[in-house]
Amino acid sequence: MSTPVTDHPHHDPSRSDRERLEALVAALTGEERLGLLHQYQAPVPRLGLAGFRTGTEALHGLAWLGTATVFPQALGLAATWDPDLVRRVGAAVADEVLAARDRGAGRNVWAPVVNPLRDPRWGRNEEGWSEDPWLTGLLATAYARGLAGDGPRLRTAPTLKHFLGYNNETDRCTTSSGLPPRVLHEYELPAFLPALREGAAVAVMPSYNLVNGRPAHLSPLIDEVLRTAAPDELLLVSDAMAPGNLFDLQVFHPDGPTAYAHALRAGLDSFTQDDDRPEATLEHLREALRRGLLTEADVERAVRHALSVRLRLGEFDPDPVPEGALDTPEHRALARESAARSLVLLRNEDRLLPLRDVRRVAVIGPLSDTVLTDWYSGTPPYTVTARGGIAERVEVVHHEGVDRIRLSSLVMSVVEPEERGPLRLGKGDGDAFAVLDWGGGALTLRSDRTGLHLDEAPDGTLACTAPGPGTWEVRQTFRLEEVTQAGGSEGPYHLVQIHTGRYVGVRGDGTLSLVEDAGDACPFWIDRVSSGSLEAARLAATADVAVVVVGDHPMVNGRETEDRADLELPAAQRNLIRMVRSANPATVLVVSSGYPFAITWAAEHVPAILWSAHGGQEYGRALADVLFGDTEPVGRLTQTWYRSAGDLPDLLDYDIIGSGGTYLYFEGEPLYPFGHGLGYAEPLYGDPEVTVTGDRVTVTVPVTNPGDRPLEEVVQIYTRQTASRVRVPLKALRGFARLRLEPGETATAEVDFAVADLARWDTVDDRPIVEDAPREVLVGRSAADIRGTAPLDVPGEPPAVRRGTWSAAGYEETRGTALCPLTPERGDAVRAVDEGAWIRFRDVDLGTGVTGCRVLANADRPAVLRAVLDDPYSGPTLAVLRVPKGEDPYDFAEVEADALVAVGVRDLYLVCDTPGAAVAAVTLTG
């Protein structure tokens, strides 16, 4: 056996990092290089190169590797609007990653998630930071900086997820996110680029979906944008099993070697495929080399990226790997601080909060005595529930507020054996089960006797053995399906396992098991033992204050692989809130969730409402800190709360500009606006002043605390452009300042930003421009609560007009189309998917007259395109272009026609009555 070499140049700290990296890459054989392209990088003992694994989950704490401090979900950390606090949490998580190396923790961490939260129905909404791309970039950079550290060597290597256009779980591996140039450059990229430009993140993970018809793992933007932004070598790691999708689910390539070669050429450096079994991946890459689809230079480039990160982690230095610590008193204190500062006070009528002179509190609700963790949580060393946190201060009476039932089939009832075996039908009253409604028809049944949930055993029988939903395939949720026969309001029903769609039946020995067909299912009648909402209301009436804690279960509705269908609270929770409020007017509603809810009734009838994301192990104490006024509620929403899902575009419509998505473009009235959050004192704002000096804008505004308690205010600065030839944001966040004011104190908030931040993407010249246009600064407490405005005069330029040749993808408006690839490698086109589809191009300069129109087009059948001026339905036809059938989707050909004589600057529409035709470029000649 060869002896490891420790005096190789890459171990020599007197050499530059570049020299050490190049020496190591050069020393590797071809086969050794291939071994470094899988998630589980192979060791090279002869060079003293250890094995290395990418991918330790660290979204809001160390996940999946045993006991670790659990901080609030990322959405909750974002609600603090506190980059310094977020950075400190990231640093604590890095400590715990380093301390857990003996458990298998690797130092390449897969966090933060920087997809801007375009749609609150996204199943992974809890993982992101904000619907605003600037705020997302700011806070994610802070978290990544905490993970990476400030030293010359990385403590951990943060990875941004998931590039690009990823906000749906529904068919996530096969849907395509349409990102027109303005949405790409003004909304998506600004969330990713700050952490890369500042060197806080050193790796990126592409997303499962396609973008403009091309798999995100093959995006030309990886090299063209991401690597250009990063100051050092950037590592690109695939999402789990995503490389196989390229030739399987997505059918973008015919086989593995072709797909993997394209991925490597596009910029992917590490294949997360087949867990710790790299053989198939490496064979695909070997075959790609044999076929000439890859060169050794392609492999060398990817290896350089992979080893660069390991070099910057100090792996090859003589100094020992830095130490860390798990579950320290400091981390526990930070968990409490971050949870308290993440709480958002949505409503506080009659100043019910903070609670004063309260001796007895009724703590009620399905989330009142539990702290729920999500898929990317660690195992908390302890948890403090809402009930526990409040009980440390005052007398507490408690009720979960859920119904208890018995299930029976005619004369037999469902009973649970003492030894936790399968449920069965037997004589007598049967056992009682608590029914927890998580919305969307999803229920869990929990044994009254053992406190465990109904679950599926390996043999298909059903037993109460699960602590709750918590596995990747959630098999603990069921729905009641009414049997199509005459029955009472309590039955008969079929009980259906949601994950598989199988029915609950009864075997010959009486045990309950899952069956495939409804004909074999057992009809059940429901005997309601007690009404949770009624009992909770009676208890609430005996207390000074009722605190009702409701929300989502992070492992049920709205999670990875599952989007929400609507924004409603579960029906049972809505009923509970109404009943408790009717019993005790002094009701505080606490919503604990990873996404906004449409709590429209509560917003009008419940006097005080607090929201937080799932707050981690110290949630209950943090909640009590705010309820009793020890801590000012300082959280602010980073997402719009809508009144219903009817206010939202289609989940798969990523064009927020065209569809009016997020606070930037939404013209309706939100339930709670972006940036909303109340305090226990009301500030007074003075008049803002705006100064423009060179390329910077400075906004100052005096703020006074006229109350009798300290105030912490988040002063938010927005701008609005009041005229443009294209649709621009109604307002856009440019910065914020935190002020802590003692009673009677006045201080000045100051925010400055670059004039360049006011730019929009010009699709004519393909560059950002600051338009010569009127603007104003808006200062306030939220995007809707504006306390002052001032004019903003900055130098700008007129937008260019279109002439000559331009890209069809740079349209201003479209109907019935989808973006698609021009070639497998790069370029976008626009394909008609509906009859009567059209594309609009604003301000096309026809000069003194055009004589011809030419398009680069493709069609899956002969098609006709019409170039129409001014209006797609009634305007004059400039030219008629006949597109022949192409051999394949990438067979674009130039098609030309004579044009009607027209002059001046006009709007031009390309109208296609034949679905399947695509256009990549437009040219006017004359």
Number of strands: 48
CATH architectural type of the largest domain: Alpha-Beta Barrel
The helix fraction, in percent, is 10-25%
Q: Give the mean pLDDT.
A: 96
Classified in CATH, the superfamily of the largest domain is Glycoside hydrolase, family 3, N-terminal domain
Q: Which CATH first-tier class of the largest domain would you pick?
A: Alpha Beta
Largest sheet: 6 strands, mixed
Principal-axes geometry comes out as: globular
Domain Fibronectin type III-like: 713-783
Family: Belongs to the glycosyl hydrolase 3 family.
GO molecular function: hydrolase activity
Pfam family, one: Glyco_hydro_3_C
What's the structural blueprint in terms of helices and strands?
Blueprint: H1 17-27, H2 30-34, E1 40-41, E2 52-57, H3 74-79, H4 83-99, E3 108-110, H5 133-148, E4 157-163, E5 176-177, H6 181-197, E6 203-206, E7 210-211, E8 214-215, H7 221-229, E9 235-236, H8 242-245, H9 256-266, H10 279-291, H11 296-312, H12 329-342, E10 344-348, E11 360-364, H13 386-391, E12 395-399, E13 403-409, E14 412-415, E15 424-426, E16 433-437, E17 443-447, E18 453-456, E19 462-466, E20 478-482, E21 493-497, E22 503-506, E23 512-515, E24 525-530, H14 532-540, E25 545-551, H15 571-583, E26 587-592, H16 600-605, E27 608-612, H17 619-627, H18 656-659, H19 662-665, E28 684-685, E29 689-693, E30 696-704, E31 711-721, E32 732-741, E33 746-754, E34 760-762, E35 767-769, E36 775-780, E37 786-792, E38 805-807, E39 813-815, E40 817-821, E41 828-832, E42 837-845, E43 852-858, E44 863-869, E45 877-883, E46 893-898, E47 905-912, E48 918-925
Helix pairs in contact: 1-11, 4-5, 4-12, 5-6, 9-10, 12-17, 14-15
